[in-house]
Amino acid sequence: MTARQIMTADEVRRALVRISHEIVEKHGGTAGLALVGIQRRGVPLARRIAAAIDEHEGVRPPVGALDITFYRDDLSLVAVQPVVKGTDLPFDLNDLTVVIVDDVLYTGRTVRAAMDALMDFGRPVAIRLAVLVDRGHRELPIRADHVGKNVPTSREETIKVHVAETDGGEDGVDIDRLEREGAGA
Fold first, then answer.
1. Could you tell me the pTM of the whole model?
2. Is 2-177 assigned to CATH 3.40.800.20?
């Protein structure tokens, strides 16, 4: 595989600040707003967006964490014993607008699983989606309301998001191209 950086730490920071402004503008303020990050990398991204909203609005919306492991439609393909990271929703979802936050939007199946999981905890007024990277190739009719960067990709490429809180090191986004078997170097 060959990797190439497509977002630096500073570009990630700027994208999250821009998303925070878009969320507040689309929602018409911060009242009745909550952010829920999808485990793993969506959780620190949601916390950063909440911190940015607090910085420019003076109000920090509540942030939760959502584990979608048992809601996945490919669970049997992922692992015999999946790693459960835990759901933490320290607020009542009813009557809130919930913004689901994730690192990469690809087929839409993760987001579908997240919506199914959320509905087991309550009935939000609305569910919106914020992602750091939208790479296309949707298999379900799902689109993000807030996108940090649109990155057209082929199916032979992967997007790798690095977040200091979960991966150590510096934030960034890389694109990798999988080498085809038999292709010599």
1. 0.92
2. no
